[in-house]
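#onboarding

Welcome to the new folks! Below is a worked example of what a typical request in this channel looks like: someone posts a single protein sequence, and someone else replies with the predicted structure as tokens. Don't worry about understanding the tokens yet, we'll cover that in week two.

Example request:
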Amino acid sequence: MDMSRGCALQALLIVFITGSLADLQLLPSPVNISMVSINLKHTLYWDPVMVPGNVTYSVQTQGEFESRFVSHYWHEIKNCWNISARKCDVTQEVSTSVMYKFRVQTLVGDRLSAWAELDPPFNRRSTLLTLPKVELQVSELNLVAQIKDYGADFTFFIFYWKKGGEDDVNCITTSSYDVSTYLEKAEEGKEYCAEVIAYARPINRNSSRSDTVCVQVQERTEHGSKNA
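Example response:
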């Protein structure tokens, strides 16, 4: 009788422990983890985990050095720790052009999922460089190029010319910190055109040329100028 009772208690204990471990593993890991990288701005995305409770997520990263020599070490991304959003801006974590691993975990209260990794790892050289956006303006016969700011890591090459004089193209270089750039004194009645190439310095890559934009300089009247 005592032996039977002992076996029964042992069986119940095994069931309890097994059930507890199973509960810990019931929380699904995030799926469809992907990286969207545009103009050296990198955002990690994943699908929502649909379970009852307050679902949050945490993100960790591992650089190439850690991956090769201290693979047990993962860096916690503070702005993406225990967050309800299903995306994480990891731009500041990617400081060199090597492979970075990222992984995401689901949390509900004290329950955790297994980590799910981005596959394959990410290298910022794969970033998409969009066409620069430029606008030509004339004010008091000053020809100015307005360029959309891409951030601190870009240099812009502005190519501009007078309409009809495409063989005489000028080029001015400017940084993202100076996206309103004076080109030259414009001539009344002339039309000017421009195109821009964005150069991403950290990865040594150029974008394609922007669309061509033009502006017509109106001639002055007796009452002053009417520049476009």
